[in-house]
UniProtKB/TrEMBL annotation:
<comment type="similarity">
    <text>Belongs to the glycosyltransferase 2 family.</text>
</comment>
<keyword id="KW-0808">Transferase</keyword>
<feature type="domain" description="Glycosyltransferase 2-like">
    <location>
        <begin position="12"/>
        <end position="170"/>
    </location>
</feature>
<dbReference type="InterPro" id="IPR001173">
    <property type="entry name" value="Glyco_trans_2-like"/>
</dbReference>
<protein>
    <submittedName>
        <fullName>Glycosyltransferase</fullName>
    </submittedName>
</protein>
<dbReference type="Pfam" id="PF00535">
    <property type="entry name" value="Glycos_transf_2"/>
</dbReference>
<dbReference type="InterPro" id="IPR029044">
    <property type="entry name" value="Nucleotide-diphossugar_trans"/>
</dbReference>
<dbReference type="InterPro" id="IPR050256">
    <property type="entry name" value="Glycosyltransferase_2"/>
</dbReference>
<dbReference type="GO" id="GO:0016740">
    <property type="term" value="F:transferase activity"/>
</dbReference>
Length: 238
């Protein structure tokens, strides 16, 4: 059963860098949800992969935005947001290519955005569950504290990469170069009056491969985000 024509149009943006082992599984699973709802589309942003990610997209005829060189997550995601803005989508969703995100939660993110008139909805693992004790989760506690200190609002899962953005946020990501799919940008948007809420989701381990975030890189990432939230974001006008 498909939805009615007055439903908002949603674009799922799937940045992919060297995800040849996971991408087909991820898109196959995503399509089981996308095909149910007429208003949900998707696009893969190949971020200059050196493996067969591009060829997999072309062979399977996935909607594809191809970057000739590796630019990093920020530019890849902004490319998807520029596409969403030009095509007039009402909402855009950040969605990992590695299989960690569960597409069954897309509809609940959208429903939460509409019911609460939110600009950003973060898929949170920890609304109903406690954070496990790990180096990454210690960093997540730290970033949550920095967000609360600077915005007065509480986020349980600020580093979650599964996020939905409304049309206003799509335009800002498309036009403002310093907007990145990171917790410091979320905190900056909150300081400027954006309504950010969370919606419960579950996440899995990567379908294949391993994360580029080693323990050392995770610590450096958390420190960088903390400094940005506390200091750098205050130098910009919201």
């Amino acid at each position: 059963m498909t939805n009615t024509i007055d439903e908002p149009n949603v674009l799922v943006i799937v940045p992919a860098y060297n995800e040849e082992d996971s991408l087909e599984h991820t898109i196959k699973e995503l399509l089981t949800v996308v095909r149910i709802y007429d208003q949900i589309d998707y696009v893969v942003v190949n971020d200059g992969s050196s493996d067969s990610t591009k060829e997999i997209c072309e062979r399977n005829k996935y909607p594809l935005l191809n970057l000739p060189v590796n630019t990093g997550l920020t530019t890849a995601f902004q490319t998807g947001m520029k596409y969403a803005f030009r095509k007039g989508y009402d909402y855009a969703v950040q969605f990992d290519a590695d299989g960690q995100h569960d597409p069954r939660f897309l509809k609940s993110l959208l429903d939460t955005a509409r019911e609460q008139q939110a600009n950003i909805v973060i898929g949170s693992r920890f609304i109903n569950e406690k954070k496990p004790l790990s180096m990454r989760m210690v960093g997540s506690f730290f970033i949550s504290a920095m967000v609360r200190m600077t915005t007065g609002q509480r986020l349980t899962d600020p580093t979650s990469g599964m996020r939905l953005f409304d049309r206003l946020m799509i335009e800002r990501f498309a036009k403002e170069n310093f907007f990145a799919p990171e917790p410091d940008t979320i905190a900056f948007a909150m300081r400027g009056g954006a309504k950010v809420v969370e919606s419960p989701v579950a996440m899995r381990e990567r379908f294949a491969g391993s994360s580029y975030l080693t323990a050392t890189k995770s610590i450096m990432y958390m420190m960088r985000m903390g400094v940005s939230i506390l200091l750098l974001q205050w130098m910009r006008e919201a």
